[in-house]
């Protein structure tokens, strides 16, 4: 009987596609295996088998599966359910989820660009097909699979590429150049015959006459390789038997060519061999430390969490900054491991992984795996495969995307800093919230979820206190019983009026910073805006440079002397003259972190200053360096955006300056006050963690704003209570679920018509729940105009039904010819 498979493709398709299985592949395919299939005219993709069956589709002609890539599934049955939940809840396609979930190396398609690995060396001859592809790539190191197929004349080139990927002869091209560690390396040692002083002296003489460059290389080898051996007690042969070097390193040190090297191999002096270099465990220090003993408050919280987990699946740990939440997590992780369970530890941002990794590694050593997007794709593929093996990591520490990893015995999920908005994926789909996804994943696998933070999200607070969906555990003392920092508000409106502001700094802040520097203490300055100035303005006519693709003013980056759009990345040089009035008096307005840095350096020329924002942390090592330098006291003042507010743990910070609270308070979003409170409380919490009470200078023009008073009193409950009352009154989450419907088009007039039509259709099914269409704050991005329709769905109403209706309306829209060019997407639970 003919067999068919339903395949998930990495395309925005709402359903699976069915393919026929050729007879010779019929027995090889299981659910969760990857297959290569043709799609459209000439494309092929890697798909995942969702189902195997014997039902021939009636309404279209079925194509055949080209190749089966896996003998064993790469996706576990439970992961399908998780994907389906995600596509359903976040109103996107399974293809969208698939694209987000798998590392690139596991989902090759004809458009994938592969790259030649110049370090690749093969011990054996490659199959002819593979060699042909490699030859093409060595001539032109980056090519799409499509092009390789054309140029090589080979069929099913994707399998050839897969095999080359497995051998690491090629890589999947990534946007950033990443450091790559090979899986095996070629090492060199003296051949057994040459491990004899007499023979070597003989060789020296001969080489001196015939091949002086080989002699040089041999000398470099001997001087390097013998290091560390005890030449007094060991015989020469014994020392040399244990002495080896990597071939690459040797050639680099000696600046020698491979030909010279091969000469020594041919003479029987050098011997080469390959050695695995455990890439994943390269720095896995197995030496582990015992756990810290919890103090009394921590112990109580720990017991309360364990009690809660007897009856509840989710627990919110609300512990003030530096109360020792991380230590409690470590104890809970140890318990889970002792029961043979796995743990997923989620962090909102890569910036945080460095510190936490070090703390967890000390205790759990090689049982800890780290998964995040700044790792080379090959490493992510390897972690994925390892989690499917019978020796997976017991703990995965990672950001958002680690919820997609396969887990076989998950027992606990920790969502650290659960209030962070970076847990929400913005673009592209799936626009999922990793906290919600983690809770769902845990419940599907029978695991518990712990949400931890000093400043819970209003939603989680509601779920823990009003709706009682989560258990609540509180920890109110700092671990070292140091008081929370003293927060001093400063009215900059008044100071500006009296002309007493020094750039972005009030006299009080400058005084505190000076004192801290004198006492060799550290300072954090927080400004939630990167770049030099948020805006440049013509002083004569008021002209402001705007992005040509988007409706936003450009940010000035002084270091590059450029104007940049933070939405689309468009960059242009700062004009010398105003294009409107030809005036030359262009002035910057406001302060970004870059300008703050300039001013700080001018006022405190002797201080060592570092800046941490998106512009200075493009690579993972850059983050690590900035954080490590500050931790080791190599910098005195750290300036940064919200990145410095995250759960970093520093010893000597005595002063924190919040330069301008107003940009946060004035942000046009219903979460602005909540966010402002969280950011300020968190950044304040970086002060005074070890020795004495810290001080925070909070500069604002809105000195009477209730949020300012709540931050000063660290009155989280007051803030949350006030916000909940407002949200209920104005029908916002957590009382109503929001779905933003975005519409995009190049033609603004047409888009307006589309938006009006769609809103009318939506009103006819959802009635008063529909608001808009409106122009969002940034109403054009990358040449596409944007309109937004808001849907507010009351608690308890069926989201599944809402989804059906939405999809139906969308279909109706797209079925009209004049609306064919409309782009529609949804953002469920927007942040
Ligand atoms: P939080 O995660 O709540 O901000 P941390 O877990 O980072 O707090 O703890 C703050 C500091 O106190 C850290 O440097 C941590 O090592 C230390 N600490 C917390 N609990 C203990 C403990 N039980 N024993 C020793 N040190 C602790
Ligand atoms: Zn002008
Ligand atoms: Zn732009």
Which helices and strands appear, and what pairs or packs with what?
Elements: E1 3-8, E2 17-21, E3 34-39, E4 43-53, E5 67-68, H1 77-89, H2 94-101, E6 113-116, H3 128-139, E7 142-144, H4 145-152, H5 157-166, E8 170-172, E9 184-190, H6 197-210, H7 212-225, H8 236-241, E10 245-246, H9 247-254, H10 258-266, E11 270-276, H11 296-311, E12 314-319, H12 325-338, E13 342-346, H13 350-364, E14 368-371, H14 377-388, E15 395-398, E16 410-416, H15 434-444, E17 448-453, H16 458-465, E18 471-475, E19 486-491, H17 492-497, H18 507-518, E20 522-526, E21 535-538, E22 555-557, E23 562-564, E24 571-573, E25 586-589, H19 593-603, E26 609-612, H20 620-631, E27 637-640, E28 653-658, H21 662-665, H22 672-684, E29 695-700, H23 706-712, H24 716-729, E30 736-745, H25 748-766, E31 770-774, E32 780-781, E33 784-794, H26 799-815, E34 823-828
Parallel strand pairs: 12-17, 12-18, 13-15, 13-16, 14-15, 16-17, 19-29, 20-27, 20-28, 26-27, 28-29
Antiparallel strand pairs: 1-2, 1-4, 3-4, 3-5, 6-7, 6-8, 9-10, 9-11, 21-25, 22-23, 23-24, 30-33, 30-34, 31-33, 32-33
Helix pairs in contact: 1-2, 1-15, 3-5, 6-7, 7-9, 7-10, 11-12, 22-23, 25-26
The structure holds adenosine-5'-diphosphate (ADP) and zinc ion (2 copies).
């Amino acid at each position: 009987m003919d067999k068919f498979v339903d395949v998930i493709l990495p395309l925005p398709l709402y359903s699976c596609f069915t393919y026929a299985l050729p007879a010779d592949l019929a027995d090889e395919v299981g659910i969760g295996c990857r297959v290569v299939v043709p799609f459209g005219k000439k494309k092929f993709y890697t798909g995942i088998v969702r189902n195997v069956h014997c039902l021939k589709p009636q309404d279209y002609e079925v194509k055949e599966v080209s190749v089966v890539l896996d003998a064993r599934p790469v996706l576990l049955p439970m992961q399908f359910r998780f994907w389906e939940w995600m596509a359903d809840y976040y109103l996107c396609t399974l293809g969208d989820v698939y694209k987000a979930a798998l590392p690139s190396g596991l989902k090759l398609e004809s458009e994938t660009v592969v790259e030649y690995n110049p370090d690749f060396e093969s011990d054996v001859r490659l199959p002819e097909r593979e060699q042909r592809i490699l030859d093409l790539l060595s001539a032109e190191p980056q090519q799409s699979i499509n092009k390789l197929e054309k140029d090589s004349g080979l069929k099913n080139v994707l399998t050839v590429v897969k095999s080359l990927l497995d051998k690491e002869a090629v890589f999947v091209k990534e946007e950033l150049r990443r450091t790559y560690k090979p899986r095996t390396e070629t090492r060199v040692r003296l051949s057994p015959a040459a491990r004899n002083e007499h023979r070597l002296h003989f060789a020296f003489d001969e080489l001196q006459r015939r091949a002086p460059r080989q002699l040089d290389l041999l000398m470099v080898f001997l001087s390097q390789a013998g290091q560390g051996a005890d030449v007094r007690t060991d015989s020469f042969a014994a020392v040399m038997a244990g002495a080896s070097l990597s071939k690459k390193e040797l050639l680099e040190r000696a600046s020698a060519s491979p030909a010279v090297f091969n000469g020594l191999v041919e003479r029987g002096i050098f011997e080469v061999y390959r050695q695995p270099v455990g890439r994943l465990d390269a720095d896995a220090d197995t030496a582990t430390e015992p756990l810290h003993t919890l103090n009394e408050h921590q112990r109580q919280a720990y017991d309360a969490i364990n009690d809660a987990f007897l009856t509840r699946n989710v627990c919110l740990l609300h512990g003030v900054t530096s109360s020792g939440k991380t230590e409690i997590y470590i104890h809970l992780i140890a318990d889970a491991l002792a029961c043979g369970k796995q743990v997923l530890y989620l962090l909102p941002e890569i910036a945080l992984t460095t510190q936490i990794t070090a703390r967890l590694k000390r205790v759990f050593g090689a049982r800890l795996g780290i998964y995040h997007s700044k790792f080379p794709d090959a490493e992510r593929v390897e972690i994925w495969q390892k989690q499917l093996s019978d020796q997976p990591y017991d703990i995965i520490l990672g950001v958002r995307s680690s919820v997609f990893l396969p887990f076989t015995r998950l027992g606990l999920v920790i969502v650290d800093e659960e209030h962070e908005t970076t847990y929400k994926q913005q673009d592209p789909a799936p626009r999922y919230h990793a906290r919600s996804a983690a809770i769902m994943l845990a419940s599907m696998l029978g695991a518990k979820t712990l949400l931890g933070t000093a400043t819970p999200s209003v939603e989680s607070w509601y779920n823990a206190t009003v709706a009682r969906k989560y258990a609540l555990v509180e920890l109110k003392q700092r671990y070292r019983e140091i008081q929370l920092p003293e927060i001093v508000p400063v009215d900059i409106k008044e100071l500006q009026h009296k002309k007493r502001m020094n750039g972005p700094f009030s006299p009080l802040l400058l005084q505190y910073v000076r004192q801290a520097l004198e006492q060799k203490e550290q300072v954090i300055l927080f400004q939630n805006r990167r770049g030099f100035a948020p805006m440049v303005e013509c002083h004569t006519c008021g002209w402001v440079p705007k992005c040509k693709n988007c409706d936003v003013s450009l940010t000035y980056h002084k270091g590059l002397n450029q104007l940049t759009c933070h939405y689309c990345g468009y960059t242009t040089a700062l004009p010398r003259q105003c294009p409107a009035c030809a005036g030359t008096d262009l002035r910057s307005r406001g302060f970004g972190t870059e300008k703050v840095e300039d001013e700080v350096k001018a006022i405190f020329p002797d201080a060592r200053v570092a800046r941490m924002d998106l512009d200075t942390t493009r690579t993972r090592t850059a983050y690590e360096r900035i954080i490590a330098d500050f931790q080791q006291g190599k910098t005195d003042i750290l300036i940064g955006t919200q990145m410095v507010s995250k759960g970093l743990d520093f010893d000597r910070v005595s002063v924190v300056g919040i330069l301008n609270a107003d940009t946060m308070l004035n942000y046009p979003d219903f979460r602005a006050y909540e966010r402002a409170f969280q950011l300020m409380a968190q950044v304040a919490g970086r002060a005074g963690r070890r020795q004495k009470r810290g001080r925070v200078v909070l500069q604002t023009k809105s000195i009477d704003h209730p949020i300012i008073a709540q931050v000063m009193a660290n009155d989280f409950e007051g803030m949350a209570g006030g916000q909940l009352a407002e949200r209920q009154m104005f029908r916002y989450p957590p009382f109503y679920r929001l779905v933003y419907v975005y519409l995009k088009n190049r033609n603004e007039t047409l888009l307006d018509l589309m938006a009006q039509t769609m809103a009318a259709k939506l009103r006819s099914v959802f009635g008063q729940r529909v608001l808009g269409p409106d122009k969002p704050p940034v109403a054009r991005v990358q040449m596409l105009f944007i309109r937004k329709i808001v849907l507010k769905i009351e608690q308890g109403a069926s989201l599944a039904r809402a989804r059906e209706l939405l999809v139906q309306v969308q279909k109706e829209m797209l079925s009209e010819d004049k609306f064919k060019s409309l782009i529609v997407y949804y953002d469920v639970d927007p942040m």
